[in-house]
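Data availability (excerpt). The following record was deposited with the supplementary files.
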Amino acid sequence: MRTIIVTEKFNDKKLSYFLMNSFSGLTQSLFYKTLRKKDIRINNVRINKDIILHSGDEIKIYLIDDLLFKTFKPDIVYEDNNILIVNKPTDMETTGENSLTQNLKDFFNNIDSTAQKFIEPCHRLDRNTTGLVLFAKNEDSLQIILNKFKNHEIEKHYLATVYGIPKVLHQTLTAYLFKDSKKSLVYISDEPKTGYVQIITSYSVVKTFPEKNYSILDVCLHTGKTHQIRAHLAHIGHPILGDGKYGNNQINKQYGYKTQQLCSYILQFNFKTDAGILNYLNGKMIKLKD
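Predicted structure:
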């Protein structure tokens, strides 16, 4: 049995949403089975419906930890004394509760609880974007890498499976992006507007499937804004398959994808200035294996 208090972040959210964000192993089918058995209490009252929660509510769920939590084993792609690069799975935030960062810290703490573990992400991927995430293992490395990302000295490439086949095989796209934080959406304009920032996205066609009308693109970010790749590709008429926010739900259903088919698969270190203790990384490319 686990007891958990609803935070302000989940005020007015459904019980299912709260619990699935709190317990990595809890599936939708298991949640509804637990409801039917009345094995969930809210403020000491057994419930059998997926109700709306309020901050401060006390939730008790009568399931063993093996069912509530996934056994986390990180897919480490590269590691040295200063940095760690991990292949992030889908359906996991980079930071926050139950995130890749928290799971990494817990994993290394379980290996050696006596050593202080400094593991901090240097950038983020969306919850359902998979692939390479770069972590710093000390404060000096963190500051260096953050500066290198800011100055575009670390190149990020993504593989995106998109609807349709682009007429131009390689293109650098320039547009303008507005972030609506309240709706957790971004909007793209071809012309500059008040509140919009410039974005630059390059793509190259890797493979096409004319009979099924979709393509695989290598996408390179020259600016790193929220949902940039997803929104920019949708803006030019090639939404990422499985993207429920910027894509087309009917098309996603047709292809059978429930999450966006976007993967960060290359990190290339192209330092133009001194990188201190990380100079040895200059020119190095980390690529996710096929």
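Summary of structural features: The CA atoms of residues 178 and 196 lie 5 Å apart.
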